[in-house]
Amino acid sequence: MGLFKPYRFLSSVDKVDLEQLAADGFDCILLDMDNTVLPRDTEVVPDAVIEWIARAKEMGFKMSFVSNNWHGYVFDRAAKLGLPIVHKAMKPFPLAYHIAKRRLGCKRKATVSIGDQLMTDVFGSRLAGIKPILVLPQATKDLPHTLFLRKIERLILKDAKPTR
Questions:
Q1: pLDDT digit string (tens) for 134-149?
Q2: Is the overall model pTM greater than 0.70, yes or no?
Q3: Which of 44, 64, 67, 91 is the most exposed place for a label (fewest CB within 10 A)?
Q4: Residues facing 3 on adjacent strands
């Protein structure tokens, strides 16, 4: 699986163990937005995710969104959560990860990314030399091309299940 192998596979963002990340030497988190932090095409971020982001900030994690989304409303979403954003990321190309990392002052080896798509988030993170955490998507509704990519994901992941 190599470039498509996540560092960790979890059921949702709020299941990412921040204490373990810190113990493993990570201090920077790059987050996908749609279907990772909030269900696609909605403004409703689950309370558990809001609390997780607040806790990460309190612990001193530097964080940014890295999103393929091209719409202007992603800036409002990011601002509501108090995080910067690199949008129009064109993942899996790694440039946006490098831009976000540089803006935050993060080192590659101290950075993880969290996203819901194997073909963009995990693959793009690996191309950037960043450890990717894969989470299950928050919604089943998605763009047609993403639904197609999810079929390929299932073939690659086979019987892999999130650890929690």
A1: 999 887 666 676 666 6
A2: yes
A3: 44
A4: none
Task: Walk me through the domains of the chain, giving residue ranges and CATH numbers.
Answer: 2-157 (3.40.50.1000)
**Chain-centre distance for alpha carbon 132:** 8
pLDDT confidence band for 116 (50 / 70 / 90):
very high
Alpha-carbon Rg for the chain in angstroms: 14
Non-local (6+) Cβ contacts of 25 within 8 A are 109, 110
Longest dimension (CA), the chain: 39
Phi, psi for 29 (deg, rounded to 5): -130, 125
Q: What's the pLDDT tens digit per position in 22-36?
A: 999 999 999 999 899
d(CA 120, CA 34): 12
- In angstroms, the CA 133 to CA 115 distance is 7
Q: Is the pLDDT of residue 1 over 60?
A: no
Residues 6+ away with beta carbon under 8 Å from 47: none
Alpha-carbon distances, residue 84 vs 13, 75, 76, 130 (angstroms): 18, 8, 10, 19
